[in-house]
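Deviation from plan, reported transparently: tryptophanyl-5'AMP complex.
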Amino acid sequence: TPRVFSGAQPSGNLHLGNYLGALRNWVRMQSEEFETIYCMVDLHAITVWQNPTELQHATRELCAGYIASGLNPEKSILFNQSQVPEHAQLAWIFNCVARMGWMQRMTQWKDKAGKNQQNASLGLFAYPALMAADILIYHATHVPVGEDQKQHLELTRDIAIKFNNDFGVDFFPVTEPVIEGAATRVMSLRDGSKKMSKSDPSDMSRINLTDDAEAIAKKIRKAKTDPDALPSEAEGLEDRPEARNLVNIYAALNDQTIEQVLSEVGGKQFGEFKPMLADLAVAKLAPISTEMSRLMGDQAEIDRILARGAERAREIAAPILQKTYEIVGMVGAA
Ligand code: TYM
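Because the crystal trials were delayed, the predicted structure below was used instead.
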């Protein structure tokens, strides 16, 4: 069976972009058709400094968010990255396969390191090699992510191909990015040219999965828009990033196409559309937030789920790491 891998960072809150761009698709892929493995990537989170107590809390809360969104720890392997040491071990090998120039081209590196690259952590630079290791340590074939991870997945393919070439093997598979749905790139509610992000300093820019109904409604009411009515055709959204974003969100939450939504709301003013969107968002998201807080009430249970997930993940990862060591020529590996 084809194997699915994906993950999210426990750095701040899960938001609507994570949910629509990634988590919802993870839940859909949790089926007879695929073996599904979903990770909380704490080793990636620490590429920028995290308060240790907050990191622990965010990791457990992320696990609660996965489950509340519909991932089932019986059907999927849910685990925390640092609890499966094979990720870091394979990442080292990939650090020796990947080239500096490949890493330098990554737009996320350029964005996150900013002007002062000399002062960014080495881990932030090597981030994509660890991500390739996450995927390839399971020989995963399908990786459901939002649009912003596309370049990293191309690099994962490059690493797999170069490793296979360097050692004359056909060992690591070439992975398929799965970037699907109406909302593969949810934008900030305050600025239609920026993606919705955990790290945006303004909490009004995003809807968190932990927001209550009141907070969701307020953020949508205050979302930036333009003064025009909604168009009845998709072309009418072209130069209106904020309007397009809200329509996209509506379509994704309601499992409709943009065209279907516009055929219903075309001609309406935002004063009328925003309350519709707020009601829909509350109806879809409030149950997730309620379930998350319920799950967070029993942290021992979350820790048990993560421990069990790590055990199952290692059963797959350990033999693949051994085989990799053998291919590379490490004494002691078979
Ligand atoms: P992270 O934690 O930033 O985001 C988790 C997932 O949410 C998607 N996403 C979005 N989708 C649509 N609109 C948005 N505004 C938006 N913001 C985030 C992301 O594309 C992602 O799918 N590097 C990854 C984590 C990772 C990973 C992996 C993913 C580590 N190893 C291996 C796949 C496979 C990250 O930082 O995601």
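The domain at 211-294 is CATH 1.10.240.10 (Tyrosyl-Transfer RNA Synthetase). We consider this an acceptable substitute for the interim report.
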